[in-house]
Design goal:
Elements (H helix, E strand, L loop, with lengths): L2 H67 L6 H56 L10 H25 L4 E3 L7 E3 L1
Antiparallel strand pairs: 1-2
Helix pairs in contact: 1-2, 2-3
Length: 184
Amino acid sequence: MSTPKMLQELKRLLLDTASGGSRQLTEVETDLVQTNILLGEAIEKLGSSFMELHTAVLAQQKELEVVMAGNGTLSAEDIVRLKVMQDDITVHVNAAVTGLQFQDMTSQLLERIVRRVIGLRDALGVLSANSFEITPDSVQSVEMLESLLKNTVESMEERLTALENGLWKTVRQTRMESGDIELF
């Protein structure tokens, strides 16, 4: 294969890789953002339902306290059963709070994925930009081609290292009172 033909094929490879990869990463980014929006809406509804449940439970408890404090005919057995029900409600409320904590961590993961996609797309942009430098006029020797490829690789490595260093490895939940959770 002649040098001009080889240069043309290399240029096409770099452009196709950069273009196709960037296009797919854009689609992934869009899907992730939409997923995050849907997840946020679902959790908002869960939070609203949780608060309504809590309000209803408090009203029920107040009513029971009034009955128990009055001349109601509740037996000791009834009171124990009501206490067990109250403990069960507390368990369910804590489970709902834990669900909200996991939404927070999922949201952090989605944000990290979007950052990774953006960084990878930027790195692929290096291939696209450097491919325009590959012309028979600009690359007149194997040494020039080697230098261009070396610069491209170094530039890609710099961007990928910066991307990796810019992403946190741990997903944390520390905003809710029920405790801290850490993944990865």
